Amino acid sequence: MAFIDCHFFSETLGVSASMYVILPQATSGQIGMESRMVGLKHPTLYLLHGLSDDHTIWMRRTSIERYAAQYGLAVVMPAVNRSFYTDMVQGYKYWTFISEELPAVARSFFPLSAEREDNFAAGLSMGGYGALKLALTYPDRFAAGASLSGVTDVAEMVTKRDPDEFTRVFGDLTQLAGSRNDLFRLAGDVAAEASDMPKLYQCCGTEDFLYEGNVRFRDHCRRLQLELTYEEEPGTHEWGYWDRKIQSVLAWLPIRQHESLSSGRDDT
Questions:
Q1: Residue 216 lies inside a defined structural domain of this protein
Q2: Among the residues of the chain, which ranges form H helices?
Q3: How far apart (Å, rounded) are the C-alpha atoms in residues 174 and 167?
Q4: Total structural domains in the chain?
Q5: CB-side exposure of 32: number of CA atoms within 13 Å?
Q6: 20 to 30 A Cα–Cα from 7, which one of 23, 166, 196, 209?
Q7: What InterPro entries would the database entry show (predicted)?
Q8: What is the dihedral of CA 111, 115, 116, 122, to 10 degrees?
Q9: What's the angle, vertex CA 24, arms to CA 112 and CA 253, rounded to 5?
């Protein structure tokens, strides 16, 4: 895999932005790595960070580069601060950035596929919310979305956290439920309107403070008959759990089985 620390100017934000990118590289001489490429344009996972983190966190806390190598999968990890992947009422337009500008900019820099079947989103906590928001808002662009310990019931969550901060993000919090920032509303829209349903994955530890909200969203998706894979096990809101579960996400992703251009393993 190739690792790129990428800094670029965002026209949407009006400031410089940052992302980490890992790209497939078919190798035969790299000890301890099995790498492959499945096409000239790479399938891509947009991997999103949580509220207290930034674009570096997945590389610092997990072995995502090693995990992704065997799938021939590019991974784009952007920074969005504490925006909740939203066009903030008082702040920057991070939803427009993440959903519109970032994919276009990343594809202009790197050989990433623009086809729906090759694009996926995943994230943890706030990033789990962002990943499901991408997949449910744009089922025509994303084949799958995965949430690891995600904020799936955002309207309920903001009542328990700093209301001033989330008012700056979302505006009137009494209007959040049922809005375009509410995953429950977006899931209902997809069930009623979308011709191509995105595959959804959701997991949460049973001791996580977000567990009850995840159960509510799971049950909502099941009532709507969305294609949801749900997993739970003992666990809290921590990186040992997410390091394990991101491996489950990668194995679950519907990555198309192109003929591999080349691959190899050095068993020396």
A1: yes
A2: 57-61, 64-69, 94-96, 102-109, 126-137, 154-157, 163-170, 183-193, 211-223, 239-252
A3: 10
A4: 1
A5: 3
A6: 166
A7: AB_hydrolase_fold, Esterase-like, Mycobacterial_A85_antigen
A8: 0
A9: 75
Helix pair angle (183-193, 211-223), 10° resolution: 20
- Domain membership of residue 187 as a residue range: 2-251
In a domain? residue 231: yes
Amino acid present at 35: S
Residue 258 lies in a domain: no
Residue 74, both tokens: 């590019």
Asked, for residue 193, whether it belongs to a domain, the answer is: yes
Per-residue model confidence as pLDDT tens for the chain (268 residues): 999 999 999 999 999 999 999 999 977 777 767 777 766 899 999 999 999 999 999 999 999 999 999 999 999 999 999 999 999 999 999 999 999 999 999 999 999 999 999 999 999 999 999 999 999 999 999 999 999 999 999 999 988 888 999 999 999 999 999 999 999 999 999 999 878 899 999 999 999 999 999 999 999 999 999 999 999 999 999 999 999 999 999 999 999 875 555 444 333 3
Q: Which two tokens stand for residue 145?
A: 């979305």
Strand 15-23 and strand 74-78: the pairing is: antiparallel
